[in-house]
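User: quick one, fold this
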Amino acid sequence: MGQVYFLCMSKMKMVPFAEVVRRKASMRLYMDMAGQLAERLATKREVEVRRREQFLKAQSAFLPRDVFEG
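Assistant:
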């Protein structure tokens, strides 16, 4: 019974450690995905800002100034 008890206890001690490792890996994946999404959003925002600037450059003479305030 001593060997069985030791085997069970050693497995029980490894379960929390395995969970810590799993959570750490999961957090790394999550952070990587969050970074990639942030980069994609920043790129999309830059494109939108350029489009707005082009629009204003071409059309601002034809629109009232108070349209762009705020």
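User: anything notable?
Assistant: Residues 14 and 24 are 15 Å apart (CA to CA).
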